[in-house]
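Chapter review: from sequence to fold.
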Amino acid sequence: MMTNLGKWEVEIGWILEAVSEARIVVDLTGHIVFVNRPTEAWFGYRREELIGQTVEVLVPERHRGAHSANRAGFISQPRPRPMGAGLDLYARRKDGTEFPVDISLWPLERGGGLFILAAIRDITEHKRLQAQLEQARHELEKMVVGLKRSNAELEQFAYVASHDLQEPLRMVASYTQLLAKRYKGKLDTDADEFIGYAVDGANRMQRLIQDLLAYSRVTTQGHVFERVDCHALLEEVLSNLRLAVEESRAVVTHDVRLTVMADRGQLGQVFQNLIGNAIKFRGQEPPWVHISAERKDAEWRFAIRDNGIGIDPQYADRIFVVFQRLHDREEYPGTGIGLAICKKIIERHGGRMRVESQLGKGATFYFTLPDVTRET
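The token string follows.
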């Protein structure tokens, strides 16, 4: 069918028919002079029904006034551009239903006349995905707020509970120790055993509370980050561990010579705990521990490698959970909170901590710190 575009339709019609989205050409009065087949399918009109009508027939009634004004603005400055940039645009089908669209406009000059080509894209699926993404973002924001509040409440609870429990527990520990000292051997063997259990339980509870308090203080009482010379810090940590190193005949080496921004006390606590664990969880051979660091992208990756008893890979995450232990306290003393504190410290510094190990083949603990001292 030929429209008043005449020969021009023959020239460009096949191009507009080849695309999979709606294409409409209107004249300066807003009357439709050409539509392609996708336009018929999308809007439910036959081509003959649209040719000669104003394009507003495809626009929801509430938007028709603004649409006419937009067309006039385009005619005054004809150049390729999106229609209604920043606005939610909708098209209207023959049956009255609407769907969201994205429209781009181009001026077309043929035969001395100016026409407007409208490229229409159905963005229903895009809108649906956008709404789902927005809903997911809101849910994530609510979850983050909830987690922050929950963490703050837990930290406050841990601090208050630990602090308030210490005084009555101190009294219990003192009196049970007094009982053990004053009445040991004066009662029957059962009494001595029961008093021993009470003393041991009170002492263990004190250590647990002190460690829980230390865990809660990682964020509540951390110091301001400063430039930390890791080489000097490691030398200080090894000095603190000198007795354990000598008694176990351990060999501890490092080649770390770099500076990071960190809480010096907390970073020293991480090194001391990891090196101390490597010495404590040793096998038949004297402990060997090596500390190294390398730069990866925008962060430093530290590695503390040992030749100790190793860890079953299935427990690689469990060991970082508060009070989780893999061994009897009689075999390896401790409360099982040291690695949880280390992980929390590293996360406070914006890093990550993990372990690679196999039973009987030693372990390597890795942690990262951002390289914020790098010159940019």
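Two observations follow directly from the output. The CA atoms of residues 200 and 330 lie 12 Å apart. Residues 7-122 form a domain with the Beta-Lactamase fold (CATH 3.30.450.20).
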